[in-house]
Structure formats: C-alpha cells, structure tokens
Batch of 3 targets.
Target 1
Amino acid sequence: MTATHRYALAPWLFLAPALALIAIFSFYPIAHAVFMSFHRWRILAPPDFIALANYEALMHSRPFWLALRNTLVFAFVSVPAGLILALGTALLLNRPLRARGFFRTVIYFPVTVSMVVIALIWSWMFSENYGVVNGVLQTLGLGPRSWLAEPVSAFAVIIVMSVWKGFGYGTVIYLAGLQTIPDSLYEAARIDGASRWRMFRHITLPLLNPTTLFVLVTAFIGSFQVFDQVYVMTEGGPGHSTSVLVHLVYELAYVKFRMGLACAAACILFVITLLFTFLQIGLIRPQTGERR
Amino acid sequence: MRALVYAVLLTVALVMLFPFAYMLLTAVKTDAQLARPDLLPAGAWHWENFATAWGRAPFARQFLNSATVAVTTAALTALLAAMAGFAFAKHRFRGRGALFAGTLATLMVPPQVTMIPNFLTCSRIGLLDSWLGLIVPVLPLGFGIFLMRQFIRGVPDDLLAAARIDGASELRTFFQLVLPLCRPALLTLAIFTFMGSWNSFLWPLIILDTPENYTVPIGLTRFSQQFNVEQNHLMAISLLSLLPGLALFLIFQRAFVRGMTGGALSDEG
Amino acid sequence: MISRATLAASLCLTLLACRSRDGDALRLVWFGGDDEVTAIAEAVAEFERLHPEIPVEIQTVEWTRYTEKVMTMLLGDRPPDLARMSVQWGGRYHALGGLADITPHLASADLDDFLPARLASCRQGETLFGLPHTSVGLMVFCNRAHFERAGIPIPSSPEEAWSWEEFSAIAERLQRETGVRHGWGVFRGWFPVIPFFYQSGGHLLRDGEPDFACDANVDALTWFVDQHRRGVAPLTSWTPGGDAAETLFVRGDLAMIITGNWRLPAYARQIEDFDWTVTYLPQRRRRATNAGGENLVVFSTPRVREAAQLAAFLTSPSQMERFCARTLFLPTRRSLLGGEVPYHAHAEALAMFARQALDFEPAWALEQGTPEFAALDTAFVQQIESAVMGFESPREALEALNREYLDARFE
C-alpha cells in the first residue's frame, strides 16, 4: 500500500463515525457509571458525593445478595444444561438423516424469536388457573401448582425456558465445528477397532474444545445479562426470589430512581462479567494456538 | 439405532414447536374458552380474534416503528462497520492495533452498565422517546467492525492498488469496489442486527414513553400488563410479531449460520 | 473527498439535532382506560374549537408505568405542560420543583365549588398547582351468580355492611357451596389494602412520622395475610407471576373483589357470563374506605397560562359532568354531587360509591399526600407481597415501610 498524504488521512475519516459513537456510547458511560456510583443521586436534585456508601448499602441489602445469588445460579445451571443439549442434538444431527434441515431449523428457530414473546407464551402455559400445564396435570389426577408464584418453581421455569430458547444456538455452532473434523481420523480409529464411545471421547470431544469454550463463554456472558424473561414473567417476585442483577439495576434506577445505587450495582455486574471474560481469553488463547 | 435417533429428534422437535402451537390455539379461543385450561378450543376456532386484537392498541404503528428502527439500525451498522472495518483491514496508521483492541473491548461491556449513563446522555440531547434515541446509542459496532474487518482482510490488495492507480478516491474505492465485494458479510451483519433490534427490549423499555412510539416487544408487554384477561388477543399479536423474523430466517438461513459460525470459527477462516 | 466527508458528518449532526416533536402544541399527558381516553380526546377537541390558537397534543401513557414515565420526562427535561395525576402524587412533584403556580391565571374560575379536601390536594402552601378533576372510590364487587346459588343476601346500605368475620365466613361458604375457587380478593396495589388499616383503627402517620407498624395495622395485615394463606383470598394474586385477582373475577373464579369504580366500564365489557353488583366494604372497629382521584396538574413550562386555561376548561361544571357521565367517575364539584351526573350506566352503583366515599376522612387524604408516601409506591406493594407470601412477618413488613418512608425523606 502506498501511503501518500491523502491516504494517511483517509483511514481516520472512515473510522471517525464509528469511533465517535463508540467513545460516546460505550467508553464515556463506563466512566460516568463509576463516577455516579460514588454519589447519592435521586434525579432532579444535584448528586451528593458519598464515596463508597452505595457499595456498602448494597453489601447490607438482602435484595442485592438474592439477585447476585440468582444470577450465579442461573448462569451455572442454564449454561451447562444448554451446552449438553446443544452437543447432544448436534451429534444426532451430524449424520446423514432425512429432514435434517427441518430438525436443525426447528431447534434453532426459538433463538431468533424475541425473549418477550417467548416469556409471554410460557407465562400463559404455566398460569396457575388457566394454563395448559396445570390442565394436563389435572387430567392426570395431579393437583395444580402455582408455578410462577412460588420461589423455587418460578425460578426453575425461567431457567428451563431460557435453556429451551437458547440451546439451538450452540447446536448450530457445534454442527459447524463437527464438520471441521476430518473423516479420516474416524476411519483410522475404526481400523484400530476403537469403540464409538472411545472415538467420541478421544477424537470428537478434544477437537471440539475450542467450540465448546466459545459456546461456554458467550453463554456465560449472556446469562449474566438475563433480564427480559424475569421482567415479563415474575418481575423478580415473589419477594425478590427470582430477581437477578440486571433486574435489580433496572428497578433501582427506573422504579425507585436511586441512580447512584443502581450504578453501583451495575459496576459490580461489570466486574463480574470482566472476570469471566478474562477467564475466557486465558482459556481460549492456548487452545486455539494449539490448533494452528 | 436409526429409529431411535428419529424418535429422539421428533420428540425434541415436538417440544420446540409446542409453545408456538399453543400460542396459535390460544389466539383463536374466545373468552369463555380461555377460562378452561384446555389445549384445544372447545368448539369453534375464532380467527376473527386476529382482526380484533389488531385494533386493541396502536399495534400497526408499533409494527411500523419496529420495522423502521430495525432496518435503520441494520443499515447504519453495516455501513459504519464496513467503513471502520475497511480502515482497520486495509490501511496502516499509527494506533491501529490499540484502536482495534479498544473496539473489541466494547464487546465485554455489558449493556446494563452503559444503560443508565446513556439514558442520561440521551435525555440531555433530547433523544428520549424518539427513533434516533432507539437506534444510535445501541448500534452493535464492536461485533460489526470485527466481522467486517475479518472479511475485508480477504479482499486482495492488488484490486485496491489497481483502483488507486486508476485515480479512484478512497471513498470511491470503498463504495464501488469494497462494498460490493463484501455483500455476503454485509448481509449477515444486517440480518443479525435487524433481528437484534426487532427483538430488543431493555433499552426501548427505558427510553420510550408513548404507546405510539413503542416497538412491538414493549407494546406486547404493556398490553399484557394492562389487559391480562385478553390472552387470546395478546397471543394473536405475538404470533404476528414472529412473522418478519420467521420469513427472514427461512430466506436467509445460510447467512444466519455463517454469521454465527463466523464469530466462533473465524480464526480458522 | 474531505468536503464530502464533512458533508456527511454535518448531515449526521443535522439528523441528530432535528427531533420530530411537534413543538407548538400544548402537551397533555394522560392515563386511563379506553373510555377515559376517548372522553378526554373529545373534550380536548372541543377546547381546540373554542381556542384554535392553542393546539393540544394528548400523550397517553399506560397506568402500569405512569409515574415511572412522568419522572423520566422530568429527568429528560421535557415535562408535560399538563398531566393527569393521582391525588397522592402532586405533593411529590411539587417537592421536586416540577410544578407551577396557576393562581394568577384563574381569575374567573370558581374555586369555591370544588370539594375542599380535593382542592387541598392541589395546594402546597400558597401554591395552587392544579385543579381536581375526578374522584374514585372502592367497593366490593360481587359475582351475583355465586351469591344466588348459595342463597346469601348482599347488603345494600352501609349500615348493613358485613363485619370482617362475616365477610370471611361468607367467602368460605361461597367456596364450599358453589365451588368458586376463591371467596374474595383485592387487586395488587396499596390502594385497596389501606382501608383494612383504617377499619381496624389504624393510621399511616403519627405527628408527621411514619407509623405503619402501629398495632392496629399489624392486626389488620395479620388477618389479611391469614385470609390469603388459607386460600379464602388468592395468595398468588399478590405476586406478578400469579393470576391477577381482576382476571379471576372476570372469569368467574373469584366471588368478590375489592376494586374501584374505574373498573365499571371494563367489567361491563369483559363479563358476559354472569351478573354482578357492588356492595359496601366490610367493617371492623369502624367503617372506612380509601378514596382518591385525579387532578390536572400544571408543570413549570413556558406555557403555564395555556395549561391552566385547559385545566380550568376540563374541570368546568359542564365538561366535568360530561366526562364523569361517560367514564363512570365521581365528580369533584359540590354542585355535581348528589346524583346530578347523568351516568349512562351503573347509576345506582355510582350512587353507592358516592355514599361509601363518606367513610373517608380528610386527614387520611393528607397522610397519603406527602411526597414521601408517593415515593413508597412500589415498595409498599412489595412489602405487602412479602408479608402475604410469608417472607416477612406482618410487623417486619410494616416496619420496613417505616424505614423506606424515612429514607425517601432525604430527597
């Protein structure tokens, strides 16, 4: 590339709009959020600097710990469950089947649908008095349950639904990953008389490692941001038992108008996400390096 | 063994499709039919519910809003990301590495952290309750730039050099040479951005005030909060809201898959 | 090349700068059911005919997130010129400095005709920031089909109102004899819970300090929680994941619901399968209810004069009468009380609502009108939920409200 004066300016002009937007709407807000988290601020009145008092208040707040616990439970249950389903369905689909495209489409379709719509339909399915789930249970002679109104079952329904909606993403990625594994490896193993399980264990799984890590980490980061389904299905209830961190941030900021406290909670969420992201970088780098 | 595989897959397909079927079955029930937890409507199916539902709230307006916002978001993202991707892929300049790393770093920032300050920024420059406010702060530029840079790197340098020797300006090279070559990547990015915007919830929830300005997910949520009794109408509109996405998905399935695996396996590219 | 880029950049800036908001019109922010939305649109159209120089834009926001959205409008520095506002909220917006004084613009308005207690809810000190528009009250709505099947008479005068014990016993009998899922319930909100406190002799504030956890209130909430835990009232209607009491009533699965007259038009439309009627709230130590309503409040914008003019027009005797007749609300003018409003339906029920409203003491309007009380809102509902669902004892839940109230005072 010849770098004349004209071309030296060009890249900056191409970059300017995108970088300006990133600076204004991604980087500046982080600084602003951290700054606000040190203030007591309930809109309209000017903010008061109170140092770490917001963080301290959160440490003593039961809703915060519940939301943090729920967020972690959500992540550590829904991510592995989704991963196993994704791998399982991908393995099933990675063979010459009739209607393979149909099955793949059906499994992937919920991923493309709005979480709000999914949450609305699942709420209705699990409605205590009018939902089809209790309707079926009743015909089987089992009593109705108030699924979304009891702490444990409400959270369970939210998790099951989220896994159901999301695992198709992993299926498609695993399918692509499986197709990069050369058939010759399996043939060689077959000649050596390896069992199906041994081939899966010693060829498929190790070669899928980078894919697994990618799916795992994107899913983890996504699961820390869970909000829509909680807002639509339970509003965090009953009594904060299904609240998650993002819902807490939303409620503090836009229902109770405690902007400073909300920013402190958001910053904590940020730190947790960062920790997991660095974990990702640390884990993925050596793996992909090996493959090249 | 084969039969077993089919049996498992059929069960999975049934589980995946059931909620959507139930949605349809609910949409055609009357009030009285809704009061019983049956699967099928006892008696006639009431297709006219779709028409009634459409008139229960400014849904036509909300569909139009969602479409406008999603199309604009997709187009803007594709354009800005392609421009930046071009600069990162085909120009050498001081700070390139650092800037690109910075761009990628935005992928790590959860939108919930930036949401409150961005809300304040928008309120200061008067973007609340407007289309621009819905679009500009949440363009997925980090993802877009990454994708476009990967793709544009594959464009042969000789082509660009030839264009420059012919005296084409950089802008012309970009619009007449690079962009057309990037069509597949642009399509993928645009579709993903469109779907993301069509389905997005939290940001619109915060910045929209007026039912006439709502996007579809917000309109649906509000409707369900206000008219909890009218599940049939809610499901009818919800079902309609799936159609644009379903159409896009069926037409561009390949672009979908490429977009996702592009993110996952791009290093192999 | 550079000039083209500059062009593009300036285009972007222009795009950012021009917002598509109609700057000329007076902005009226409104909430309400279908009938209320139609009625206000008609009234405003008439105002525009009389004052073609003042175009009005009505912005409707759903009730479920109304206060949230009006707050963010203020925060975004684009307050409405005029807004429909529940009586409990005026004090808070005034304390936040958002409201204007309309006294100078009301020379001809006859303020004397407004109910004094309601006019007081538009006043803080010397400032009159709005005008009373409509009143609402609470009653017990009964599913007549269930009552007739069980052969239970429904009281028709306040003196015959059930005691809590009778109320609960009747509810259980209905469940037993008609198989209805639940006997009675309230919609999820603080508004219909407060009467139980007053009925058992309680209060919310004492000498300006929060006293939510006074013994009478703890007693009342204990009974209320017990009714829900025993299934007489629907426990899960208190959490958003459960089926709402309103839905249960419409479907015939709840024999009685305590709710307000704003529900009359909706029930008339939604309920086809059974007859329903209203009766007086139950009583314990005394008869008591909750009353509220809506004011039209004027925000501090450059258009205070026009906004005040519109508020005066909408609350004028003829407009108020027409609005109430159409939407089944109670008026806030003395000249219109006493059965003068020509309601298009449910006139008898509305007369009973007016009668029940006499069981509301002016002092209660004051304690529910403080800025701190308005700030509670969601917290209040969450604390009741917490008690009903058994996460906290009634006393703990109410003590938490005391703390929330004090915390809100720092604003």
Target 2
Amino acid sequence: MPLIIKDEYPEKLFRDDGKRLDGRDKTELRPIKMEVGVVENADGSAYLEWGNNKIFAAVYGPREVHPHHLAKPDRGILRVFYRMTTYSVFERKRPAPGRREKEISMVIADCLEPLLFLELYPGTSFEVFIEVMDADGGTRCAATTVAALALADAGIPMKSLVTAVAVGKIDDELVVDLSGIEDKAGQADLPCAITWFNEELSLLQFDGDMNLKQMEEFLSLAKTALSEIYQIQLDALKKKYIEIQEEVSGGNS
Amino acid sequence: MSFKDEEQGIKDNNQEEEEEAVNTEDDSDPDEFEDEETTRNLVVPGEILTTDTKTFSPGRGTILTQDRSKIISLNIGLKQTKKNYINVIPLRGFYTPRPGDKVLALVTDKNPVKYRLDINSKEDAILKPKNTMKRGRETRGMRGGPPDRNTSNTDMFNIGDILIAKILSADRLNSPELTTVGKYLGKKNNGIVISIDPPKIPRVIGREGSMIKNLKNLTKSTIFVTQNGRIWLKAEDIAHERLLVDAIRKIEREAHTVGLTDRMVDYIENEKKKRGLK
C-alpha cells in the first residue's frame, strides 16, 4: 500500500506554550550547517543544511557558453540551474524542470549578478548548479545563500557574499525563517536577500497579506536574522583554511 | 634564480635533454606568498580591509567602495600590506593568459591551418604553423612563396601531444596565440604532468625559486612549472616521481601556511626514509 500523507495543515501554528510547532521562538532560526569544497570536480562548491533543507551548489566558470548563441560579446553571463530532486518533497516531483524551478533559477541569477564583475569576462559564462536534496520551506533563500558560498569558494572575484532569509506572518504574528508547514498554512511570506557590500536588498518577493507598517517590521526582523546567517557563512568559508593552518602549527609546536 | 643557475642545475642532474629546465617565472608576481613576515590574515569577499582610504590604496584583489569610504576584498585569500597598497593574494581562482607566460598545453585539435590547444583557461589557444618553426632558408617559402600542396603545414605535432609554449598575445576578446620557438619550448616526450590550482603556483616556486630548488635537489628530478597551473616533472624512477607528486599536492594544500619550505624539506626526507629511497 502506498504511503499516504494527508494534505492537511494544523489549525494553529503556535503551541500552547507560545512556541512554534517545531519548538522555535518567533525570531529563532532553524539550525544551519554549511561546508565548502564538497564537489571534487567543480571549480567551487558548497553544501548547506538548513533545518530539513539539504542543498548542494557547484560553480563552474568562466568557461565557454553552450549553446554559443547565448554568449554576449561585451560581457559574461551568469546562469543558475535550480533543480529539485524527485525525492526532495512528499509527492514525487517530476524530474523535468518546471515553471517554479525556472522562475527560482532566474530570481537567484538576478540576485547574484550585482556581485560579479561580468563585464571583465566577455563571451563566457559562469554556471551555478543548485541541487535540492531535501526541501522543507525556504529553499530559494537557502539556495541563494549556498550559491554565494560556492561562488566565493571558486575564487571568482565578487564584491561580497549574499545572504537570504524568509520572514512571514503566521496566526497574525511576525516570525523569521518559515518552515514548510508555516509557509503553506501561514498568512504571508517574504523572502529577501541582502548584498553586504552596499547592504541593499537584492531579492524581495512577497506572497500573502500584510500592511505597510508590518512590512517595515518584517525587514528589520530580517536584517538581524541575515547578519546571524552571514556570520555562519563567513565561518564556513574560512574553516577549510583555518583547519589546515591549525593542523600545521599544532604539529610544529 | 637566473638562467645561468638553471643551466648549472641541469648539468648537475646530468640530464640528457638539455632543454629541460626550470622556469622561475619571477617576472610575474614577485611578491606573491613571499614575505613570511606578513600577517597571514584570511579574508573573504566583501570583508572590509581598511576604512583609512587616505593612507591606503586598493591593490590587487581589492576594490574601493563606491562611496570611497572603505577598501573591500574581492577574493578569498590572504591580506597583505605593501607600502601603501593593500593586496589580497587569492587562494582559489582561474588562470588568465598573459603575453609572455610559458604554459603547458595539450593539443586537442588540428587542421591544415592551425592547432588548437588546451591551456587551462576559458578559451582554447591557437598555434599557427609559422610559430612552430624557426625562420630560415628552408622555411622561407612559408610566407609569400607558392604553397606546397603535397605536405601539410601541421604535421609537426599530433593530437594529444603535450607542448611547452609561450603566449604571444592574449586579451579579453580573442583567443590566445602561442609559439613554440624559443628556449625550453617544444614538445615533451616523457615525464608526468600534474595540475594544481593556478594561484598556488608561486608557492611551488617559492621565494627566488627556493622551494623548487629543494624539490629538485632532494628528489633528483627535473621540474617545469608553468603559470597555468600545470607542472611537468621527471625523476630517475617512478618512486621518486610519486614522492614528488605527493609533495606538490601537500604544497597545494598548505599553500596559505607559514614556514612551508622548511616543512617540505623535512617531509621529503622523512618520506624518503619511509619509502626506502636514496
């Protein structure tokens, strides 16, 4: 008998003790783990575990563009391929890229583009492959975060990292980092990404209902969460080299 | 290291092939990884290096922000302050061809007009037959005279050959062009080619070629290091070559640490004892 998971959402998204269904506070993030240099043959790569999300990103480039007619004579192009594996969600996902994946690929590409100096590499492409192994809400934010990390690991000159997080409204309360259930059953969600060299928003999408005052609150909530994630990103990027440094200096002393 | 020293080195190693020598490439980035005293501060893209923009100027791998208030890093690398310039020495990156670089190239395609070579950059390089032979009495017909229809111009090299070539011209828009006429240039018939991350090449050479001198003397081998991240090496036997490959991999891994040259000498001597090599 096939496994049947009912497509039902709980009526209340807060527990009696005021915490969220997974036991988090309103502004608490899910546990995040990042690692760089996981794909051997890629120029740069990164892996991210964000709650139940598990995402790989691999970067190649600069390299020649295929098909060749996409190449631009005056600048390089950035191509992002966001894909979900068939087993990443409850119901089997059809492996062909769908409307949603194409949209998210485009959104992430637009989000990462201001970081790079594409005009220095005419006729070439940078390619970012993002593979979602396990999805539980906020994959576009997680994918953006891990893609920036992979680009930095590849040694591609970039102005800064980019970090993304989703904030939203569930049961009339503003919360940070929506999980899958909160995303579907909640009232509003607002994924946003920040580029750290100018601290400007690089991605902002919105779904649901809220008023302008709440929007301001949302963004200030997001800002604190983003700097928290940014710190994890920086640590992950440096860890690879610091570990070797410590190993070497430990051996000498 | 001057060319004289290199030639001396060949004679010491009593190699038959006289053209095989080590290029030091000290013209390109002499300061890279050199100063052991510089603080080995690891920086990541976007990290603020200084807010004192009056005394410091952005050097390599850095940029001044649009409001001119701070200098930020563009790469993951090591921060280095030289006079009033702030540089970031990258730890990862790709090879960009520059005129004058010597590269190890693999012939991937050829037609009667030109060869196509893989030089580990974003574009394939081109080698024209006129750049493969010295101009002399025999080759005078190459220019001007009627073409010889019976012989192909491109039968000097075959697909799959490994060449040491020099870059004649390279820019952002056109494919780089190579030449094989010159000292140390030409086809390689033996040895091993390994590739490492191109930004770590200066570390394999070391300060004034100290690292490569040590590697050569300790394993009695010939090494040719090129800027595109490839290293050609040949030793007395396969065991020495394996040791050399392991050593180079270790250099690549620990390129950002302090005191690497001394550590490598210890490593090779220990490994030689362990593996029972002379």
Target 3
Amino acid sequence: MWTWFYQLASPKWFYQFSNKLLPWFRAATFILFAAGLALGLLFSPLDYQQGNTVRILYIHVPAAFLSMFVYVLMALSGGIGFIWRIKMAHIVSVSCAPIGAIFTLLALITGAIWGKPTWGTYWVWDARLTSFLILLFLYLGFMALHNAFDDRKTADRAAAILALVGLVNIPIIHFSVEWWNSLHQGATISKFEKPSMDADMLKALLTMIVAFQVYFVTVLLQRVKAEILLREKLSGWVKKLVTNQ
Amino acid sequence: MYFQSFKEFIEMGGHGFYVWLCYGVVLSGLVSYFIYSKQLAKRNQRNLIKFYKRMDARSQLNANNQLNANNEAQ
C-alpha cells in the first residue's frame, strides 16, 4: 500500500510520474483560470464601499495565500530532506523557492495597487505589509544561500535550516492584523466561522484559490523535472533519456 | 453579469486603471513564469547533451593516454 509513497523518493520515478500528471494539471490550470477570471470579473457583485476595486481581491488573496502555503511546503520538505536525507525532498524544497517568491511579489504588487484607491497610499510600514516583505526577503535569502555553496548537499542543508527558522514568520503574518493595529483588514474566510462575504464573491475567490493551487503544482512539477535532470546527470537513465532524443 | 455595457466593464466605476493593472501584472507574471519553467527541462536537456559529449570525449582521451603510457612502459 505504501509502495507509491516510497517511490516518490526516487528521482527517476518522480520524473516519470510528473510527466504523466503534467498534461492534466496544465489543462486544469487553464480551465480553472478561465472560470475564475469570468466569475471574478463578470459574475461577482460590487463591494458596497470599494466598488469595483474589490475585484483585485480575487488575485491578491490567492497570491498571498499561495506564497505562505509554498513557504510552509518549502520549509517542511527541506526539513524532511535534512532529517532523513531524501534527495527528492530537497529537490522539491529548492524548486519551491522561486515560485513562492513570485507569488509573494505579486501579492505585494497587487496589494500596493489596491492600497492606492482604498487607503490612499501604495505602501505603509505596518505589521502585515512589513512581515510580508520579510517573507519575500526570506525567499530571496533562501535562493541566495543555496547558490552560495559549490557543494549541492551543503547548500541543500544550509538552505533547509534557513527555511525552517523563517517558518516563524508565517504565524506572524497571519496574526499580524490581530496583534497590531493595521490598515490591512482581517481574514474574511475562516475555518471556524461562516465566511463574511457574498456567496458569489466567495465562489469566485475559492475558484481562484484552487486555480492558483493547481497552477503552483504545474509549475512546481515543471521545475522539479528540470532540477532532477541536472542533479541526476551522472545516472544512466538520464543519459539514456537525454541522448536518445 | 454586473455590467450593462463593455465601456462600463473597462472603466470599472472609475477604478479601471487599478483593477486592470493588477490583473495585467498578475496574469503576465504567471504566464511568463509558466512558459519559462516549461522550457527549463528542455534547456537542461540541451545542455546535458553537450555535457555528455564532453564527458565521452574526455574519457576517450583518457583511454588513449592510458594506452600510450602502457606502450611506453613496455
């Protein structure tokens, strides 16, 4: 029953597995984004205070959610690789970093653009915004640290430790709007309460979050494939795969 | 549908600039990164072909050198 789980740790098997999955994920990304954009831009109501700028929510919130989700995944798989010395875990962790950095950057940019018409400013140094900027620096630091070592194993282990230490920032980001006075509003969707938003808005937002998730898996698998080729270049199956083309 | 006309849809109640700028930045960012990461594996494969050629050439050279060294020793 657990064979498939062990096989995930084999780069060769993972490469073939992601080749099988990728067409489906690419198609799903496309369909979900088309649906999410239509729901968000056309079939969701205006906010009674913000009017049409509320439509930025449907890309800002998924980007912000994913940047935190990707960070947790990056840190956990880095930790798994560190403790059990699993090659694939490090490959996933390292492949997560640039994708997460892009989500973080997009969340910051859309937040700034959204801030101008609603708060009257692009940027303030308040708790939510600053802790989110730190998240971006953590991603960049992770990538820089990983690039700083010639030995890949040392690089993997050092970067994994950085990611695990930086994990402390995730709850800070989440609770920053409750712990400090912030311009940023609190969470609208919570696991424990009924969401405080219109059903059509919620539909559009959830579709977009799923679309971003599926996009992330697609891009991650594409990156992981490339990383496997580089790291396993001395193993026979990669040479066979590459030179037989 | 919450818009009466296409013009209204573009204007977004006077906030068209902010809304469309956001969607433009996010979509162009996501699409270009999608294409980049899709081509990454192919680029690595092309580089690896060169790498294997170099490796094969080098091991050929080493084998020849070894042969010469053996001949000289005899």
